[in-house]
Amino acid sequence: MEKILFITDAMSLNYQALDFAAFLCNLTHSKLTAIFLENLEYEERPPSALKSKAAESGATAQVDTHELKSQCCEMNIKHFKEACERRGINSAIHRDRGVPLQEIIQESRYADLVLIDAETSFANQRESVPTKLVKDVLLDAECPVMISPVSFEGIEQVIFTYDGSPSAIFAIKQFTYLFPELKQQPIQVFTVNNGKESDHKDVSNMKEWMNNHYSSVNFVKRKGNTNAELLEFLLTSKNSLIVMGAYGRSTLSNLFKPSHATSVLRLISQPVFIAHL
Fold this sequence. Notes:
This protein has helices spanning 15-28, 47-57, 65-87, 100-108, 132-140, 166-178, 200-213, 226-235, 258-267; strands at 3-9, 31-37, 91-96, 113-116, 145-147, 157-161, 187-193, 217-223, 240-244, 272-274. A 10-stranded mixed beta sheet has the order 3-2-1-4-5-10-9-6-7-8, with helices on both faces. The protein contains 9 helices and 10 strands. The protein is α/β, with parallel strands linked by helices. It folds into 2 domains: 3-147, HUPs (Rossmann fold, 3-Layer(aba) Sandwich); 157-274, Rossmann fold, CATH 3.40.50. This is Universal stress protein family protein. Residues 211-275 form the UspA domain. It holds the Pfam family Usp.
């Protein structure tokens, strides 16, 4: 992997997400390109909220909203550059002033991975997690997306959520090709039996592929409600990186319906990698 996009509101730099971005860059020796989104044309947030965010960055000048946003963005860019220098990370800055979703999708076309916080929003009111912007990014991004964890203490295992669909296999392969550095990590392949018979040949091929790429693979199979079993398993799996398939793109996939992925992003504080065909 060569290029990771770090998505941030220009008014609010998430330092925990930046710490995780730094971990990924050091792991993969990738360049970190920060996309500072200013949303100049369609700003919905009230001036009071913008001033509060600006104060967090250190921009406290009593100026008009436009100038305050510009000063805040410049301060956050400065903080970002300093943080990358301290960590020895090769970085770049893109200051995008258009419609946030359009800017992210366009940038994703030429990136290997998009890294975004599930709470990223430009709405005038607080949104539930994941926000509408994040859901739209997951639907339309032209490269895989990683949701930043709420807090990060390292990766002790990787969990592949698997239902036998093309989308699930695609996500697993994309992750494997982007993160060869994790091939020695313990792998959990999680699936839920929802009453359908498994294709034994397909399962056999899957196990062979996994064992060709990873040194320690464990297959976990549960019965019952997909969403409930998935959440129970993930909630008891600490310091994990979770890999999921299509976010709303495939009618074939049961395990990766938007409802399941949304529940995971809302309740699980660990990093989640999502890719779609």
